[in-house]
Design goal:
It holds the Pfam family DCC1-like. It is built from four helices and four strands, in the order E-H-E-H-E-E-H-H. With 129 residues, the chain is an alpha+beta fold.
Length: 129
């Protein structure tokens, strides 16, 4: 079983996050697709994901997780102590979402934006859809 992470391919922070996840997911549980890609568009249509969502989205089977739920889902499946962060699921969702949305809204200001999506190295290319 695998899960697909849809990420903002133009965001420097998101790109670094994908690299971070890959390093802590040695079994390849996660696959990746940029929100701006054709595959990203297909997956958003197939799973009826709003075009307004521009943060991280995780699709596992027919379940869709977005924003803070997606971030916590990812932590739960990473190798090492990152699983501990799943404890933040006990924080009320409206508080988690407010924090997530504030960060997401300012991510370009803090980390910058790319003109193009990253091109994965040959070693990890098979993890990208």
């Amino acid at each position: 079983m695998t899960a697909i992470i849809l990420f903002d391919g133009e965001c420097n922070f998101c790109d670094a996050s994908v690299q971070f996840i890959i390093a802590r997911d040695p079994k390849g549980y996660f696959q990746f697709a940029a929100l701006q890609s054709d595959i990203g568009d297909e997956l958003k249509k197939k799973h009826r994901i709003s075009e307004k969502l521009d943060g991280v989205i995780v699709i596992e089977n027919d379940a869709v997780y977005d924003s803070s739920d997606a971030a916590l889902f990812i932590c739960k499946h990473l190798k090492g102590l990152w699983k501990v962060f799943y404890i933040f699921k006990v924080i009320p969702k409206r508080i988690r979402e407010a924090l997530y949305k504030t960060f997401a809204k300012n991510r370009y200001k803090m980390f910058g934006k790319k003109d193009n999506c990253m091109i994965p190295s040959p070693e990890i290319r098979n993890r990208f859809l």
